[in-house]
Amino acid sequence: LKDDAHLTAQVGDLAAAQAGETVTLLADVESVSVTTVVAGKDIVLDLNGKTLTSTANNGITIEATAKLTVKDSLTGGKVVATGKYSNAIENKGTLVIESGSFEAVYGAIRALGGSTTTISGGTFASSTGRYGMYYWANGTALSVTVNGGLFKNPVSTAMENGKVALSIKGGSFASDLTDYCGADAGTYLDKETGLY
After folding, report:
1. What pLDDT score was predicted for residue 15?
2. 52: number of Cβ within 10 Å
3. Which of 11, 56, 103, 151 would you call most buried, defined as having the most Cβ atoms within 10 angstroms of its Cβ?
4. Out of 14-28, 54-68, 76-90, least confident range
5. Per-residue pLDDT at 33
6. Do residues 28 and 50 make contact, with C-beta atoms less than 8 angstroms apart?
């Protein structure tokens, strides 16, 4: 990993990055633990065409009041989690995804109560066919805005008694999300790809 100040060797050093810094993957990284963006930090992660793989239950966890922006300045950059019930990213704070690929066993993205998630691009998949994205509000409101991206597995529509605000403005999906589009918009089935 590289940030604006120094070269680092361990993916866990993402937690040590200072607010406002960009951390760039310089090589593929494998980890047995969760990479955490700690509370109060605002970090950019550039996948740089490399793969961050974790055998833990989450590849990356964003704590409450932390912000992570993920992009891939090249192509082929991935966050992969291979733990039994894993998520590529678990968001408790603010997550912005511009590009990259996110793969896990259970769900590519898991948004928790109090979080804000904005997705403009990227590919999202579950190796077991579960979720491209799902939520657990646990009584606290959360918001998700999707402006683009390819969701190879379903996006959850369990709105947890109105606690989940899902807004679909663009993207391709494994399931029909018309009910979550704006008043004058909707999704349609592309018969060639089988996606909405």
Report:
1. 67
2. 25
3. 151
4. 14-28
5. 87
6. yes
